[in-house]
Recover the amino acids of this structure.
């Protein structure tokens, strides 16, 4: 009987060790799976972000504020998110009495009829700011608005001053996929 008891105790220890080893392996597997899965989930949840940088020249406005000189930068969003525009004047001339002669704005593409920018209805204007040398504006597009607009917006840069002109850089960042074979800089249109 003594041998049976020793065998039973030995078998019991072996069985406990085996269960402990299997439990540890299962725990390590679960923890490592959770870490890998969370890393993959985070990678899968990266937001799209496209950045465009353009050099620009704003010539004097032919008719002042009623007939500004404007440049258009059309953008197409692929998902909801933030449109950010940073514009900086790097040179040119700002006439003293014109205050802040330049304007940067974000509008729905639908609001620009026949390329004209002097009569855009307020319902299409999402954000606008006047500036002299530097300005940053942001506008957040949600899912409903993205569906309604088809993600099509235009960033406008305008000179409202008859005696001022500027050269500089505009950087536009928005939620879209970077295209590998992009055709180069977008065309800019002066409105009539």
């Amino acid at each position: 009987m003594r041998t049976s008891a020793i065998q039973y105790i030995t078998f019991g220890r072996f069985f406990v060790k085996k269960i402990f080893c299997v439990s540890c392996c299962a725990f390590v597997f679960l923890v490592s799976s959770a870490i890998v899965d969370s890393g993959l989930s985070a990678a899968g949840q990266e937001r799209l972000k496209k950045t465009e940088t353009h050099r620009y020249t704003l010539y004097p406005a032919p008719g002042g504020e009623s007939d500004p000189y404007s440049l258009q930068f059309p953008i197409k969003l692929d998902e909801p998110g933030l449109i950010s525009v940073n514009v900086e004047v790097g040179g040119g001339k700002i006439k003293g009495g014109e205050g802040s002669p330049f304007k940067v704005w974000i509008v729905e593409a639908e609001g620009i009829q026949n390329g004209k920018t002097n009569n855009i209805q307020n319902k299409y204007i999402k954000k606008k700011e006047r500036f002299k040398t530097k300005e940053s504006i942001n506008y957040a597009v949600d899912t409903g608005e993205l569906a309604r607009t088809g993600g099509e917006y235009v960033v406008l840069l305008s000179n409202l001053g008859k005696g001022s002109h500027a050269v500089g850089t505009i950087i536009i960042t928005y939620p879209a996929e970077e295209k590998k074979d992009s055709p180069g800089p977008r065309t800019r249109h002066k409105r009539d």
Q: What stands out?
A: The longest helix spans residues 2-44. The mean pLDDT is 80. The domain at 50-174 is CATH 2.60.120.380 (Jelly Rolls).
